[in-house]
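thought: fold this chain, then report.
action: predict
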Amino acid sequence: MKTSNLFSARALIHPLLVALSSVTVAAAAADVSNIELRRLFEPSSSERAAEAKGEIYI
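observation:
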């Protein structure tokens, strides 16, 4: 019985990891979007100085 439970658990690990990584990627994308919006509408003084020197952020 322990062997069958072990195989069942292994079969569930992959879909669970895929689901969790998708959530993590979506959260990271939202964080990046917030950073980009902040830089666009509320740049810091150092970001403004860098832009004045010709540096760009893509």
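thought: worth noting. The mean pLDDT is 77.
final: tokens above.
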